[in-house]
Structure of MFS transporter:
Amino acid sequence: MSFLNEAYLVGAFFVAAGSIQVPVLMSRALVVQEQVPPQDWSFAFSSLYAAKGIGYGAAGLVAGAAISAVGPTWAIIACAAVALVVALVAGVCDLLRNRTRSHPAQPRNP
């Protein structure tokens, strides 16, 4: 019975992390398109994808260590929770960046 509860928990974390990561990934692509000249897009997107690859590699190393420390179910739950937190932080940063860009600070008159 406890395995079934852990499976639901794993699923819930993956659904939550995935539903937040998709808009964040789209936002990153839009930021590249807005801030990088079109002739440099190939380099910018390649760098973006390389950074994702480094993140996936690091997650694999951490997951391997966590599996031996706490077991596979809790290691997966921990990795999904970290992905959820990272996606939330990135999403909040994107929202704040967009808010400050759409409402630039007005210069004060002395």
